[in-house]
Structure formats: C-alpha cells, structure tokens
TrEMBL record:
GO terms for cellular component: cytosol. SUPFAM superfamilies: Glyceraldehyde-3-phosphate dehydrogenase-like, C-terminal domain, NAD(P)-binding Rossmann-fold domains. The active site is at 142 (proton donor/acceptor), 146 (proton donor). NADP(+) binds at residue 35. It is an enzyme of class 1 (oxidoreductase). This is 4-hydroxy-tetrahydrodipicolinate reductase. Its main location: cytoplasm. Signal peptide: none annotated. Homotetramer. Residues 2-112 form the Dihydrodipicolinate reductase N-terminal domain. Pathway: Amino-acid biosynthesis; L-lysine biosynthesis via DAP pathway; (S)-tetrahydrodipicolinate from L-aspartate: step 4/4. PROSITE patterns: DAPB. NAD(+) binds at residues 8-13, 34, 85-87, 109-112.
Length: 253
C-alpha cells in the first residue's frame, strides 16, 4: 500500500484526488494538509505542514505556488519524494526547485494529463519544422477561480517550442496597443470564465493556412488520475532528481 499525504486536500483538485484514490487498491491517503481545513474528509486534515505528524510515502501537492519553500523543507526533513502539481512558480522558485532536486526526488508537471504531454512532445518535433514560415500563438482558457495567468501549461508548451527551435523566441503576453507582430514573437493569451476546466490551443499561422493543436480537458479527473499514476511511479524512485509526466507515461521519443 502506498501512503499519500495530500497537500491542498480541500480545494477543487484535492477533492477530486481524494475521491479517485478510493478506486485504487494500492493507494491510501493517510492525511491531508490545507489552509482551509475541514472535518469532511475520510482522513485527518491538518491546517499546516508543521502540525502534520502522519507517516507517508509520497506527497501530492495541489495548492498554491507560495507553499513551495515549506513543501520542499518538509520533504527534505522527511526524506520523501514530492509531486508538485501547483502552477504559477516564479523563476527564483524554479531555481530553488532545481537545486533541491539534487537532494530529493521531485516530480513537477504543470499538467498531469496524458493528452497535453503527448501534445507537448509533438510540438517539440513540429515547431522546428514550422518555425521559419509560421507565426506561433498560444491561447488558454480556464475557470474564473484560477489565480495564475498565463496557465502553467501554456508556459510549459511555450518553453518546449522555444527550446526546440534555434531562433530566440520572445514571449508576448495578452497583446494590445499599436505595434505589428515581430517574427520571433510567441503570443500567449489567457481567457478566464465560468467553469472551464482547461483548454489549450497552439496555433501555427502561415500564408494561406493555419495549423492548430488543441487540447480540451473535459473533467478534472484526468489531472487526478495523472497525479495518482505519478504517486505510484515516485514511490519507487530512489534517485534524486527532477521528474515529470513524460517519465511516468514513458514517452521516450
Ligand atoms: N498540474 C495539473 O495538472 C493541475 C494543476 N492545477 C494547479 O493546482 C493548484 C490547485 O488548483 P485547484 O485545486 O483548482 O485550486 P483551489 O483553490 O480549489 O485549491 C487549493 C487549495 O489549497 C489551499 N491552499 C492554498 N495555499 C495553501 C498553502 N500555502 N498551504 C496549504 N493549503 C493551501 C487552498 O485553501 P484556501 O482556499 O483557504 O486558500 C485550497 O483549499 C493550482 O496551482 C492549479 O493551477 C490544477 C489542476 C491541474
Ligand atoms: O488551475 C487549473 O484549473 C489548471 N491549472 C493548470 C495550469 O495552470 O496549466 C493545469 C490545468 O489546465 C488546470
């Protein structure tokens, strides 16, 4: 049995992960941590990591970027792998994450769905071919409760494109004003409204044609399933380092 500590257990994703875990015979949530706190869960919920005394094998986090430092220190102290699903990290936080991964197995992915990770892999192949003659724009849509913009997934997709081409792409967020598009811009646009779970379009606009890669998440279950698969994977990992969803789904191309 793999014992999971769920950080951010009372939020939208925390609740979905809690429900889905019950379908797995080999997984059990032994405790949760959430600022919000509640007694509604089937496991003990602590209001902070400092109060949490539960034994666990792997921690899953769906909370906020500002929780990162505390999560890393707690995981280092307990010598247990951590799965970071939260988004909105700053460059300094990403640097800290990289440094800490030399001392701890850390998993991070801005999107736990198989579909987005497959699309990300395809973009790495396609972008170097299309980059010269097509303009690249990314549009993401999410619910009206999301705090970080653009989405972590949009940044992940943009970074994959940027790292796969030999020109130095420049990110332009939510374009406005009086200025033509520059050739090496990658536009990144965020839409917020209602209960949209999470949609991502990557557009390659050329002369006389547009090629579009689209991923629409129809339910939060697919993120939760990805997090639980990552938990099963990370519980067995012994080497320190930074892992992601491609390790879990075995996308080696
Ligand atoms: N990687 C992926 O596939 C996905 C990532 N996400 C990301 O996961 C995160 C959570 O999403 P979602 O569940 O929709 O958000 P919610 O706001 O619904 O849930 C977050 C929960 O974490 C709590 N929380 C916030 N800060 C802390 C903290 N410092 N310590 C402990 N608990 C805290 C919140 O409490 P309170 O409400 O009191 O602040 C809330 O209960 C976001 O960053 C989101 O972008 C979401 C979906 C998929
Ligand atoms: O906040 C959300 O809801 C989501 N956040 C992630 C992101 O920022 O990319 C992933 C998913 O699209 C849902």
């Amino acid at each position: 049995m793999i014992k999971i500590l769920l950080h951010g257990c009372c939020g939208k994703m925390g609740k979905v992960v809690s429900n889905l875990t019950e379908k797995y015979d080999n997984l059990e949530i032994t405790a949760g941590v959430d600022k919000f706190g509640t007694n509604d869960m089937k496991y003990p919920v602590f209001k902070s990591l400092e109060e949490c005394t539960s034994d666990y094998d792997v921690m899953i986090d769906f909370s906020r970027a500002d929780a990162l430092e505390g999560l890393l220190n707690f995981s280092l102290k307990n010598k247990k792998p951590i799965i970071l699903c939260s988004t909105g990290y700053s460059n300094e936080q990403l640097k800290l994450l990289d440094e800490t991964s030399k001392k701890l197995p850390i998993f991070r992915s801005a999107n736990m769905s198989v579909g987005i990770n497959l699309m990300n892999m395809l973009l790495r192949k396609v972008a170097p071919i299309l980059n010269d003659s097509y303009d690249i724009e990314i549009i993401e849509e999410h619910h009206n409760q999301k705090v970080d913009s653009p989405s972590g997934t949009a940044i992940m997709l943009a970074d994959s494109i940027k790292n796969s081409i030999d020109t130095d792409a420049n990110y332009v967020y939510g374009r406005s004003g009086h200025k033509k598009r520059e050739k090496h811009d990658i536009g990144i646009h965020a839409i917020r409204g209602g209960s949209i779970v999470g949609n991502h379009d990557v557009i390659f606009a050329g002369e006389g044609e547009v090629i579009k890669f689209t991923h629409n998440a129809l339910s939060r279950d697919l993120f939760a399933v990805g997090a639980l698969k990552a938990a099963i994977y990370m519980a067995k990992v012994t080497e320190n380092g930074l892992y992601n969803m491609e390790d879990v789904i075995g996308l080696v191309f």
